Amino acid sequence: MNNDSNAQSSKASLLYDPVARSIFFQCLTVAIVAWLVYAGVNNAITNLEKANVASGFGFLTDRAGFDISQSLIEYTNDSSYLRAFYVGLTNTLLVSALGIFFATIIGFSVGIGRLSKNYLVRKICMIYVETLRNIPLLLQLLFWYKAVLGVLPNVRDAMQVGDIFLSNRGLAIPKFIPEAGASAILWAVIIGVIAAVIVGKWAKRRQMATGQQFPTIMVGFALIVGLPLLALVVTGFPFTIENPKLGGFNFNGGSVVLPEFVALLLGLSLYTASFIAEIVRSGILAVSKGQTEAAYALGVRPNITMRKVIVPQAMRVVIPPLTSQYLNLTKNSSLAVAIGYPDLVAVFSGTVLNQTGQAVEVVLMTMLVYLAISLITSTFMNWFNSRVSLVER
Amino acid sequence: MKTKIFTGMLASAALALSASTASAATLDDVKAKGFVQCGVSTGLAGFSAPDDAGEWSGIDVEYCRGIAAAVFGDPTKVKFTALTAKERFTALQSGEIDVLSRNTTWTMSRDTQLGLNFAGVNYYDGQGFMVRKALGLNSALELSGASVCVQTGTTTELNLTDYFKANNMEYKPVVFEKLEEVNAAYAANRCDVYTTDASGLYSIRLTLEDPDAHTVLPEIISKEPLGPVVRQGDDQWFNIAKWTHNAMVNAEELGLTSENVDLEKDSDNPNIKRLLGAEGDFGESIGLSADWAYNIIKTVGNYGEVFDRTVGAGSPLKIERGTNALWSDGGLQYAPPVR
C-alpha cells in the first residue's frame, strides 16, 4: 500500500525530479548545439554553392607562385600552397618559441626584481611592468618596428662588427654551412644534455642519501658546452663560413635576421614579460613568510632558501597563469601581419587566402592550427605542473 | 536564470546564421535599403580616397556614384566601405557590399573561381616599378638582388615573381597587408623598389616627402585591366553594373557631357535618343527608369570628364589618357552600342 502510493507519486512528480530535469535539459542543450553546428555548416555549404564559389582542399597542391621573405624550410615560388602553409607555421613556431624563452627570462628577472631590497631596482622593475602591460600590443609592435627601422642606418652605411653587418635590411651574419662530419657535433650536444640530466639525478640521489653536495650546475654546463666543443676540435671544424657581402642592393650570402622578426620578437617578449613578472611576484608573495624564517632558523643560506624552499612552493601558484601567458604570446604572434613578418596568418590566411579565394578552408585550417598549438602547449604545462606541484600528505 | 541567458544566446546565434544568407535580387535589396553599398580601397589617390571631411573621391568612387544615379537618379545615395586587398572578395561574396569598385584586376581565376563577375574595365593599367633616383637606375632589368615592397594578396605579388623569374633575377620580398604600411616601409628605405600598378605608383609618389627624388621605371610588366566586380548569379545587377560603365563611355563618344546633356535631350541623333531614353525602352530592360543614362551623365559625367577630374589632366596625378582614351582616339575604351 505504502509502496504503491510512493510509485504513483514519483511518476506524477517526474517533472519535479531534479535528476530527470537535469538529464532532460542536458539532452536539450546537446541537441540544440548539434543542430546549430549542422545548420551553420549546411548554411555555409549551400551559400557557397549558390555563389558558385569553388570549395574543397584541392587548391593546396597548386603552385603558390609568390615568394616569402623568411623561410626555415626549402621554399620557392614553384612550391605548393601547402608548402607555403608549412613555411608560415614554422615561422609562427619560431617566433613563439623564442618569444616564450625570452619572455620567461625577462619576466622572472623583473618579477624577482620587484621584490628586491634595492630601491632603484624595485622602481625600475615597477615602471617596466606598469608601462608595458598597459599599452596595447599592436601599438608596441608598430613602435618597435618604426624604432628598428628608424634607428638603423641604410644598407650602404651598415654598422659593421667583424663580418656582422647591421642595417635597416636586417642583421647580416656569417652562415655556417655544414660539411661531412658536422652531425658529430649535433650528437655531442644530445649526449651532453643526456649526460647532464643523468649526473643531476645521481647527484640529487646521493645528496638525499649522504647529504654530500655536488656542483651539478658547473658539471652540467661543462658537459653541454664542453662535449660539442671537443667534438668540434676533434672533427676539425667541419663548416664552411659564408660571409655576407654588400653587392648591388643588399647583402648577399650569409644569413639575414629580418628587422620584422626582431621587432616582433622584441614586442612579444617585452609585453608578455610584464605579465609574467606580476605572476612571478604574486607566486613568491603567496609563500608565507614563516617558510623563509623557518629556513633561516635552520641555518639555511638565503640563496638556497630561495631555490629550495620559496621557488618550489611559488611554482605551483605561478605555472597555471604562466601557461595562459604562453598561449597568449603564441596567439598574439598573429599580429605579425601588421609589420610584415611572414607568420602563419600573414602567409596563409593573408596571401594564400587572397590568391585562391578559399576563405572558409583557409580560415578553418588556420584556426585548427592555433587550437592544436595551444592544446599541445597547455598539455605540456599541465604535465609540468603536476611534476612540480607539492605532494600533499 | 543561467539557462535562460544561454538559450537566449543560442537563439540570437541562430538568427545571425539565417540572416547571413545572401539574397539573389541585389537591385531589390538596394532599392529597399535606399543606397548602394560600394567597396573601395582604404585610400589610393585618384581611384578612391577620402578627403579631410570624409568625402570620397576618385575614378572608382565616381563609378559607384554612377550606379547610384542610374538606380535612384541621385549620385549621393551610395555608401562606401573601405576594404584592404585581402578583404575585398570576401566582402563581396558575403553580401556586405553590392559592388566592388576598388582598382581590382580582372583575371580568369577571379572571374571563374570566386563566384564573381567583372563588369568591365574602367582603367587599363599595368604593373611598374618605382625607385629612388639616387640609385641611378634606367631599367627594371637592373633590379636583381633588390628588396621589393609589395602589397599582399594582389596580382602584383604574382607578376613580380614571374617577372624576376623570367629574367633570371633575384629579389627579396617585403610584404604588407595595407597600402599605408607598404608606403611607410618604402619611405623608411626598408626596400629599394616599390611595385604596384603604374597609376598607383604615380599616386603614391605624390604622397612621399620629396616626390622628385623618386622615379617610375619605364617597364610595364603586366596587363592590369581594373574594373568593377559584382556577385555571380544576379544577371540583372550584373547588367546594371556593365551598362553604367558603358553609358559613360558611350556618352563621351557621342559628345554628351554633364553640361550639355540637357540641351542634347532634344537631339535628333538616334544614338543619343536611345541612350537618353527618348527612344526605345532600354531602361526598363535592365530594371531601371528610362532616364537612367541621362541621370548618370547629368550628375556624374561621361567617362572622359570623370577621368580628367580624378586621375587625368585636371587632377594632381596628371596621368595621360594613353590606353584609356576612346577607341576612336587610338585607346582601348570601347563600349557596345545602345541598340
TrEMBL record, chain A:
It is found in: Cell inner membrane; Cell membrane. Keywords: Amino-acid transport, Cell membrane, Membrane, Transmembrane, Transmembrane helix, Transport. It is a multi-pass membrane protein. It holds the Pfam family BPD_transp_1. Its main location: membrane. PROSITE patterns: ABC_TM1 (PS50928). The chain crosses the membrane at residues 23-41, 84-112, 124-145, 184-203, 215-241, 261-280, 362-384. Residues 89-377 form the ABC transmembrane type-1 domain. Signal peptide: none annotated. The keyword tRNA-binding does not apply. Belongs to the binding-protein-dependent transport system permease family. HisMQ subfamily. This is Amino acid ABC transporter permease.
From TrEMBL, chain B:
SMART domains: PBPb (SM00062). SUPFAM superfamilies: Periplasmic binding protein-like II (SSF53850). Pfam families: SBP_bac_3. InterPro entries: Bact_solute-bind_prot3, Solute-binding_3/MltF_N. Residues 35-264 form the Solute-binding protein family 3/N-terminal domain. Keywords: Signal, Transport. Residues 1-24 form the signal peptide. Belongs to the bacterial solute-binding protein 3 family. This is Amino acid ABC transporter substrate-binding protein. It comes from Ahrensia kielensis.
